[in-house]
Every structure is written in structure tokens, then in C-alpha cells.
Amino acid sequence: MTDASRTTRPAAILWDLDGTLVDTEPIWIQVETDFMTSHGVPWSHEDGLSLVGNDLLVSAEIMRGRGVDLPPLEIARRLVGAVNARVERDGPVWRPGARALVEQAHAIGIPQAIVTMSWRVQAEVVAATLPEGAIGQIVAGDMVTRGKPDPEAYLTAAERFGVAITDCIAVEDSATGVQAAFSSGARTVAVPYLVDVPARPGLARLSTLDGVDLAGLIAAATDAAAAAARADEASTAPAERS
After folding, report:
1. Residue 152 burial (CB < 10 Å; 0-12/13-18/19+)?
2. pTM exceeds cut of 0.70
């Protein structure tokens, strides 16, 4: 594989939001803890970690099952409002290297989307702090029928751009998000943050985006997909010859 082929630009880059672009997962966990405590329900840090990457209504159902006497939609609305209030007050805290990569991709005209299980209003707050037009699409948890780990959100983003999902790169930090991106067919890059992301053939893994340029991100995604394809060809070749 030549260096040129390893850095061929993708049709689009699809970014997860919480934990990938911005460091909001600790805010979510604190808001969830405060919310549950206010309703007299014990809630640990581990409970919060177990919800990372979930569709917000799924998380709300879990909270309701633990003893919060409110409809899931109302639980979700209160959580979103509390998180957004903090982000709007203090501004988003970017994950290392993430904003620079978004700006690099925007500078050369690569379409980019935020694909998140947070609600659209939160994604809009973050997108508004980026250069105008950097984020061309938002697909959020309140805009899809099936949340992550279902691939619907990623497939929707590619469809809105009018491109093949297999020509897109998706960047995720959680196992739930990676499952959604990977099963959609996108070339997927995992940058684990608060929760572990198991290795799997075809999945690129980076410990951080700090110091990674756009060519490096594209190469990581492309090389992982190519290695998996070669391994698959090697495993099926004997059967085809028999």
C-alpha cells in the first residue's frame, strides 16, 4: 500500500460527541449522580460508567427502573438541561487533538458530522464553537428511532451527505459507539476514554488524538480495514480452491 493510498481522503468524517470530541462524560456522570441522589436513589461512579455511549432514553429507562418516579422522556430532558447549562456556562472542554483534526478536515473541505446519542441541542452548542460550516450534519439521539449500538445514526449521517458509509471514517470512544459505527460499515477508529473498547479485526485503535494529524487518522482507519480484508481473504482462500 502506497503512502498516497493510505491517506486518500474519506467521503466524510463522522464524529461521536461525548468523550470523543469533547470531555463531557465526567459532566454527564456528575449530573446523573446528582439527579439520582436528589430522588433518593443510590448511584455510583460505576453506575455512571455503565451508561457511557447509551441512547439517552435507554439510560433514562435504567434510572426509572432503579426508582426514579418520572417518565423516561422527562428524565432525559432534565439530564440534557443540566449538562447543557454547564457546557454553555463554561464552554466545551475539547478532548486532546480533536478540535485540531476537525479544523484540518474543514480546511480541505471534508464533510463532517456529529453522530451522538446526546440530543441535538447539545450537539448544536458544541458545533457553534467551531468554524462556520465545519459540522455539516448532526444526527443525535432524539433524531433516530434506534440508538447506538444500532448503526442507524451512522447510516443516516452518510445518507444525508449522499455518500457511501464504507467511504466514511467514524471516530468513537466507547464500546457501544464503536459497535454502532463498525456495524454500519464505516472505517472505525476507537480512541478509548473512560471505558474499555475491545480489540476486533478491522478496528483501528489510538490511545489519543493528541499529536495525530489528519493523514495519520486516515491512515490508521485505512490500514486497519485493509489488514482485516487481507486476513479474511487468507482465511477463505483454501475453501475457494477446494
Report:
1. middle
2. yes
